[in-house]
């Protein structure tokens, strides 16, 4: 499954009403570490079809960034059955994200 860009309008239906593990990547187009993390997230999305992967542009969806207290980017928020259960701030390794998928 490819990583899908979502907005505030579809966040509730796709993330909060989602089942299983969902990882939301809060990013910005101008962010260097975000650009470094993007291909890792894409690779993991392809390797883990059982999980949902979404991206939220903090410049376009500031309301979501504020709601999930995103102060630095990239920030990954892991949801399990629609509930935020873990947050990772900054550039993280593929192995660290794979650990997050085991919740």
> What is the strand arrangement across the widest sheet?
1-3-2-4-5
Order of H and E elements: EHEHEHEEH
What's the rounded overall pLDDT mean? 94
Distance between the termini: 19 Å
Note poorly predicted spans: none
| Helix-and-strand structural type | alpha/beta
Please tally the β strands and state the result. 5
Beta-strand share of residues: 25-35%
Biggest sheet features = 5 strands, mixed
> Helicity, in percent?
25-40%
Rg calc: 12 Å
Count of helical regions: 4
User: Shape from CA axes?
Assistant: globular
Task: Considering the chains and any ligands shown, give keywords for the structure.
alpha/beta, 5-stranded mixed β-sheet, 4 helices, 5 strands, 27% strand, globular
Write a structural description.
The chain is of the alpha/beta class. The chain is 37% helix and 27% strand. It contains four helices and five strands. The protein has a five-stranded mixed β-sheet. The protein is globular. The mean pLDDT is 94.
Helix/strand layout:
Elements: E1 4-5, H1 8-16, E2 21-27, H2 32-47, E3 52-57, H3 62-67, E4 75-80, E5 83-89, H4 94-100
Parallel strand pairs: 1-3, 2-3
Antiparallel strand pairs: 2-4, 4-5
Give the gist of this structure.
By secondary structure, the chain is of the alpha/beta class. 37% of the residues lie in helices and 27% in strands.
